[in-house]
TrEMBL record:
Enzyme class: hydrolase
Assembly with partners or alone: Monomer. Associates with 30S ribosomal subunit, binds 16S rRNA.
Function comment: One of several proteins that assist in the late maturation steps of the functional core of the 30S ribosomal subunit. Helps release RbfA from mature subunits. May play a role in the assembly of ribosomal proteins into the subunit. Circularly permuted GTPase that catalyzes slow GTP hydrolysis, GTPase activity is stimulated by the 30S ribosomal subunit.
Cofactor annotation remark: Binds 1 zinc ion per subunit.
Positions of GTP binding: T140, K141, A142, D143, G190, A191, S192, G193, A194, G195, K196, S197, T198
Any GO MF annotation of the entry: GTPase activity
Protein name: Small ribosomal subunit biogenesis GTPase RsgA
Matches recorded under Gene3D superfamilies: P-loop containing nucleotide triphosphate hydrolases (3.40.50.300), Probable gtpase engc, domain 3 (1.10.40.50)
Family of the protein in this entry: Belongs to the TRAFAC class YlqF/YawG GTPase family. RsgA subfamily.
EC number per UniProt: 3.6.1.-
NCBIfam families reported in the protein's UniProt record: ribosome small subunit-dependent GTPase A
Amino acid sequence: MDFPHDLLSLGWDEDWNALFTPHRAAGLVPARITAVDRGRCDAHGPDGPLRAACAPGLAPCTGDWAALTPGDPHVAALLPRRTAIVRASAGRTSDGQVLAANVDTVAVVAALDQPVNPGRIERTLALAWESGARPVIVLTKADRSPDPAADAAEASAAAPGVDVRTVAAPDGTGLDAVRALLTGTVALLGASGAGKSTLANALLGADRLATGAVRAADGKGRHTTVRRELHPLPGGGALIDTPGLRGVGLHDAADGIRHVFSDIEDLARGCRFTDCAHVAEPGCAVLAAVASGALPGRRLDGYRRLLREDEWARSRDDARLRAERTGRHKQIVREQRRIYRERGTREDRR
């Protein structure tokens, strides 16, 4: 078997090798895209790092496996992606922006020098679950928190079924436990100032990435990472560091949202109506859990908000979805007005 052993540490395997067969027959060579910049790519081929131009019509992303022309390298084709982290584009189009491809583990990174933000964690986890990769949560700067264990418990409450680890990268506290979770190709996702680059340097065993201080006023960073870049990890696998995400817009992420809120999805199976919207319906198991304190109301609010946002994003280019969304919104408004009217009538009778 013609197997590019120099690419094994970056994730090349028998399945990729089989997919590459027709490209090999055409005289092309395999490589993994390590960074993309203005129509050109940095890549790692069988003979090491190289710089390649991109053929028209291709949109390679960090983490892609590509077929390159030898000699003067050009990206001639991309292999099908196994996974892809996609967020909503910042513009008015409904297209998604691919942040990284062929990722096995997504590390959702948050810093403990600021209060834990469960809503931000839930949103980023939805992006991670939807990608097809396995998410984990890494809470950095544990040395700056008065109670890292309580912070980890709060993050866990927002992430059923997801491993949570705390780490203080400067002295390595918790780093071995984090490293054990990060398998295959790992992508770091989080806001600016979350400590992604510091964590990446600790995992890489060298100060390859620039780091910077955060503003004391709001804890926000200064975007020391300016592009998505893939680095080989010392023990095998690869690490993709990404610029800080100011906003995490969801793009066609309904399955990811259901993963994040699996506790609500489980409760919903006990609702009287199969199409229960968990607003004011009789026999709603989700509302009953909120009333009893078994489910935080904040969590139900976050679930509704992310589903609405995702549905709106999908409806931008789908007339049928737009009509359904408008109809459901009107129905909810009518139901809420009815409840307010009845409540007012009961109060008047007292």
